[in-house]
Amino acid sequence: MTKPKTLKELKKSGHKSLSVKDELRRNLIEKLKKNETLFPGIIGYDKTVIPQLVNAILSKHDFILLGLRGQAKTRILRALANLLDEEIPVIKGCPINDDPFKPACIPCAKRLETEGDDLEIEWVSREARYQEKLATPDITIADLIGDIDPIKAAREKLDFSDEQVIHYGIIPRTNRGIFAINELPDLQPRLQVGLLNIMEEKDIQIRGFPIRMPLDILLVYSANPEDYTNRGNIITPLKDRIDSQIMTHYPQALEDAMAITTQEAWTERGVKVCVPEFFKEIIEEIAFSARKSEYVDQTSGVSARLPISALENLVSNIEKRALKTKDKNLFPRVCDLIAVVPSVTGKIELVYEGEQEGPAIVAFNLVGRAVKEVFGRYFPEVPKSGAPSGNSQYAEILKYFSSGQNIELSDEAPFEEYIAALNRIPGLRKAVEEHLPPGAKEEIACRMELVLEGLHQHNLIGKETFENAFRYTDMLSTMLRGMED
């Protein structure tokens, strides 16, 4: 069906104009009736954030998403565009997407008067009706609202008091759409004042020239609570005009966190890399451990981007090894976790004690805690350090190391060399096969190394780190060597 191209054809089609908030409300109600997914790709918010979002939209509210970094605030704001109509008609050539039935700017009102039903219209997609701006120090009122254009005034021979000489900013140009400001507290207070009338009275003032322009717009914001003290604040009058404040949060369930990482991480490299479920748990537990660590600044938060980046680095390390060793079946190793350290150090803010330890040491400790947590889920409780281990299921393994034996594992070694080293330890394969279901030999090897690392994290066997390898040894001899060093 051909879309109307003039006002006459638009009237004939029976089109009815709605305000943007009414349009969002209508389309949301339709989705709720059909039980459709409201925000695809947003995981873990079904019972917390999304119900509050639904209420805000149904109430026709301007709102703010308040939460720490990496909590999908921007993604949620961008997803609001999916609740708009696919296309809407606007007056052709109008910079502020004027409604053909009710033009807001003077030039379009004059065109409607002179052209009548022959007024040309065009159609704007939902994507073009969403705009956002990151609050930065260089933003000006002219960027947001507009300014007088002296060149246009001279060309058209118009007085500076004429509304037609205005060059509109990004907010008026988003008329009949959604405008988002990210990191609102970073916006200077004098610029926040400029938003007050837009939100409430729909008045905008440019260089002392008052304009009564009924903008039809949904204003939404995002902010980080840390910004309230570190970089800025939301002025009280503006906060009062924001109808709803919605708090976001990090994934509360491990399953949700894993689903987010799987969805976002780039792991399709042209070669198949098999990452077992328990290994994905280790990656997620690094972030969970960081969010509880006394060395990490919890007011800054630990972004969900940390496990995403960590998984990508892990897969890259496996891919790099395969290129060197020509191994066909690509599985992770616990020693591959050294590759995720750059993903951790770059995404955590440390408190004073953490700075004293050093970012790399804190990152290694967080990885160790994650391994210890996951090891405890899949294997029996280990004897406490110093307690007799004769009746333990790990007795043979511990005896091997206490007799002075050791093994060296590298993330660069071919698989056959790697598995041969693990197979030298009596009782290790048996400990794995008794407590985990059968798997590929590469996965069994990875589980065997998990047992070793788990015992190390419980201080039952020692571990020495080299440039590209780890050596597991007797705990006592490792401690003595450390004292000598």
Please tell me about this protein's structure.
- With 485 residues, the protein is of the alpha/beta class.
- It has three domains: 7-247, P-loop containing nucleotide triphosphate hydrolases (Rossmann fold, 3-Layer(aba) Sandwich); 250-378, Helicase, Ruva Protein, domain 3 (Orthogonal Bundle); 384-485, no CATH class.
- 44% of the residues lie in helices and 13% in strands.
- The protein contains 22 helices and 14 strands.
- The protein has helices at residues 7-13, 20-33, 49-58, 73-79, 106-115, 141-144, 150-156, 170-173, 189-199, 227-230, 236-241, 254-264, 277-290, 305-325, 341-345, 352-357, 359-378, 395-402, 415-423, 428-435, 441-457, 475-484, and strands spanning 63-66, 87-91, 121-125, 130-134, 146-148, 166-168, 177-182, 203-206, 209-212, 217-223, 244-247, 407-410, 461-465, 469-474.
- Helix 20 (428-435) packs across helix 21 (441-457).
- The longest helix has 21 residues, at 305-325.
Low-pLDDT sequence parts: none
| Spatial gap, N to C terminus | 82 Å
Query: Could you name the CATH topology of the largest domain?
Result: Rossmann fold
| Beta-strand percent range | 5-15%
Read across the widest sheet, the strand sequence of neighbours is 4-7-10-1-11
The average pLDDT is 89
Spell out the CATH superfamily of the largest domain: P-loop containing nucleotide triphosphate hydrolases
- Give me the Rg, rounded: 30 Å
Provide the descriptors you would attach to this structure in a database record:
single chain; 485 residues; alpha/beta; Rossmann fold; Helicase, Ruva Protein, domain 3; 5-stranded parallel beta sheet; 3-stranded antiparallel beta sheet; 44% helix
